C-alpha cells in the first residue's frame, strides 16, 4: 500500500514539475527575457520525484530473483523426469498389479 | 493416506503432481480412483466438471495407468484403463497430435512395437520435423534393449535440434548406461553451455569426469563441483562430490601434483556437510557421519 501511494505521489510530483516547466517557459516568453535553464526548485523537485517513483516501483515489484540462478532447491527427481522419453517396459507392470 | 482427503484436495494434489513434473504413477492412479468413487461418478471424465482440467487429468492418468501395468486388461476388465482413457481423448480430439502420441505410447506399453512404429512413421510423413515422434522411436529401441540403435536415432536428432536439452540429457543417460563416459561428458558440456546457471549439469559433468578419473579429469571435476557449490550453496550432492574429488587428488597416486588447495577444499566440504547434517540428523546419525569421514580420510591419506 505504502509503495503504491509513494509511486502515485512520485508520478504526480513529476507531472507537477513538467507543468511548472511549461509555465516558467511561457512566463519567460511573455516577459521577453532570453534566459536558458530552470529554477533550482523545479530541478530539485524533478530529481526527488524520480527517486521516489523509482524506489516505489522497485519496492512494489520485489522480491527479486537471485541473479546467479534459481533460489529454489533443485529436485533431482523432477529434473530427471522426462515424460516424452517414458519407457513402459519396467517392473511397474508387475509391482503395481491390481490384486 | 489418500482416503482421508477431500475430493478437492485430491484434485489439487493431482494438479500439483502435473505441474511439478513428477512421475509418481501409483499415487496418480490411487488419487484418480479415489476421486471417481468420492464423486460417485460413472467414469473418471464425469468426475471433472471443469472442461480444461478434465482432459489434462485423463492424459495424466492414462500415462500413469501404462506405468502400472494397466495398459492390458486386468481381471474383470473388458478393456484396460489406459485404453479406455485414450479412446475418450481420441473421441474428443480426433485430430490432435498429442493424443496420437499417447495412442502410440499405449501401443508401446502393450508391447505392440509394429503398431507404435507405424503410427510414429505416419506422424513423421505428415510433419517431417515431428520431434516427439522421433524421440518416441528412440524410446522404442530403448525399451527393446537395443541401446546402440536408440543412441544413433537420438544422436541424429540432436544434430538437427541442438537446443533440445531433454534429448541431450536422455542421450547422455544412454551413453552412461553403456559406460561410454567420454561421449556422455560431451553431452553434459553441451548442456552446461545451454544452461550455465543450472547446478545439475555441472554436477553430472563432474560426476562423469570423476568416474573417468585421470588427473586432468579430476581437476576439471573439482572445478565444476566448486561451481555447483557456488550456484547452489549447501547442496549435499555437490559438497560430497567436491570432497571425494579433492581427496582423490590428495591421494598417493597424484603425490607429485599435490597442491594445498585440495586440502583446503576438502576441509571446507567436510565442515559444510557436517554443518548441513547437524541441522537435520539425530545424534547417533551424526556420530556415524563423523566416523565415516574420519575413516575416509584415513583411507585416502595413507
Protein model, in words:
The complex is a heterodimer of chains A (99) and B (302). Chain A contains four helices and no strands. Chain A is an all-alpha fold. Chain A has a domain at 2-62. The mean pLDDT of chain A is 86. Chain B folds into three domains: 1-71 and 80-94, no CATH class; 95-174, Tetratricopeptide repeat domain (Serine Threonine Protein Phosphatase 5, Tetratricopeptide repeat, Alpha Horseshoe); 196-302, Serine Threonine Protein Phosphatase 5, Tetratricopeptide repeat. Chain B has helices at 7-19, 25-39, 51-67, 81-92, 97-109, 113-126, 131-143, 147-160, 165-177, 181-194, 199-212, 215-231, 236-249, 260-280, 283-301. The mean pLDDT of chain B is 91.
Rg over alpha carbons of chain B: 24 Å
Shape of chain A: rod-shaped
Under CATH, the topology of the largest domain in chain B can be stated as Serine Threonine Protein Phosphatase 5, Tetratricopeptide repeat
Strand content of chain A: under 5%
Task: Give the overall form of chain B.
Answer: globular
CATH architecture of the largest domain in chain B: Alpha Horseshoe
Count every helix of chain B, treating DSSP H or I runs of 4 or more residues as helices: 15
H/E element sequence of chain B: HHHHHHHHHHHHHHH
Cα-atom Rg of chain A, whole angstroms?
30 Å
GO molecular function, one term (chain A): inorganic cation transmembrane transporter activity
Membrane topology (chain A): Multi-pass membrane protein
Family (chain A): Belongs to the membrane magnesium transporter (TC 1.A.67) family.
Subcellular location (chain A): Endoplasmic reticulum membrane
Gist?
The complex is a heterodimer of chains A (99) and B (302). Helix content of chain A is 61%, strand content 0%. The relative contact order of chain A is 0.13.
